[in-house]
Amino acid sequence: MDVGIVSYGHTKYGVLKEDTPELIQTGVDQCIANVDKGIDRKDIGLVIASCVDNQFSNQHQTGTLAWRYLKNPNAEGFRVEAGCASGSVAVYQALKMIRAGYVKNALVVGFEKMSRLSTEAATAALCRGGAPEEIKLGIPQPACYALMAQLYMRKSGATDEDFALVSVKNHENAMRNPWAHLHKKITVQDVVNSRMIASPIRLFHCCPISDGAASLLLSAEPKKYTDTPVYLHMGWDHDAMGVFEREDPTFIMASKKAADKVYKETNIGPKQIQIAEVHDAFTPVEIMCYEALGFAKKYEGPKLIRDGTVMRDGKLPVNVSGGLKAKGHPVGATGVGTIVETFLQLRGQAGEKQIPGVETGLVEQHGGTGSISVVSVLTR
User: Considering only Cβ atoms within 10 Å of each terminal Cβ, which end of the chain, N or C, has fewer?
Assistant: First the structure.
């Protein structure tokens, strides 16, 4: 069954005045209002909310809250949590339930109200996403990513300047995105001179703490609701939860396995992907994602940033939205929001962000430090 995306909603990312209920309601209402041919709320049989931590939302039962705002008492609603991959997993669940014939239309709303907590408290909450053994030893996710990056540098020859170029690229891209949290151009020197977090990761390699919401409406009958649907295909897979447990900590194996599944389903390979949004919560990992997704051979990812392949005007633009680094990372919204960005690119509705002639796009979102990954391929 070809399941299509027929509508979307998206707030600005940043430090917002709206609280959790307002973010959820906005996501639901925008998505319904943006259906080209209209839809009756009673025809949406399922709503799935994604958020990561109740400390951020200050609200249990966010799935039921989304159900309330859907205003269809016969629908069902629940919440999904899968770390940084939460939004993509929620969309995956909606896709599978439609394909199984459980419902014909499903709405997914991802959100996070991270600024409700102090920077210290928000950071502590996010650092609970690693393996229990790493958490007990005081090795949070930034440190795990730093260890991965150190080993990657030794094996690949990647440099601090390579990692900095990813941050510079994504900040430059975010300047075109009105939804982005950070609208500020930076230089390589700005990155390499910024405060050290966990060597080699510096402050300007890290995404901001953001609020925001994004939503998608999926349908088994997409042409009923729009003349320009975008078809969605997804793969999901896992790797060991702890970095210390992995055969090769420099390779995002979960993303490779998820990508291989969706490439096989669609008969589309990495060379046919025209645009990509990948997980860059810490920008060194973006280069590792190039390799996991088949865009570059192992340890040759740095070539793509050095030769401009992944720049906005390159052969394969990556993170045209600004990525998590500069667009922002309201964790439960992120996976949904990156699919929204790609949906709009394929419809030619991305405004100043638009890359001409896009017909095939990819979204990669992984959680933890790569223990879970969802890879989506979107087609016209």
Answer: N
103 CB-near residues (< 8 Å, 6+ apart): 44, 45, 46, 97
- What does the radius of gyration of the chain's CA atoms come to, in whole angstroms? 19
Q: Which residues make beta-bridge pairs with 4? A: 219, 231
Q: Is residue 106 within 8 Å of residue 218, measured between CB atoms?
A: yes
Residue range 360-372, pLDDT digits in tens:
999 999 999 999 9
pLDDT digits (tens, 9 = 90+) for 245-288: 999 999 999 999 999 999 999 999 999 999 999 999 999 999 99
- Return the residue matching tokens 């997704």: 293
Cβ contacts of 139 within 8 Å, gap of 6 or more:
130, 147
Backbone phi and psi for residue 17, each to the nearest 5 degrees, phi listed first: -80, -25
pLDDT tens track for 191-217: 999 999 999 999 999 999 999 999 999
Q: Which residues are catalytic?
A: 84, 329
Report domain extents, the chain.
4-118+209-224
Cα dist. 304→191, 241, 264, 300, 361 in Å?
A: 19, 28, 24, 8, 18
Superfamily of domain 4-118+209-224: Thiolase/Chalcone synthase (3.40.47.10)
Residue 274 DSSP SS3: coil
Residue from 329, 328, 310, 330 nearest 320 by CA: 310
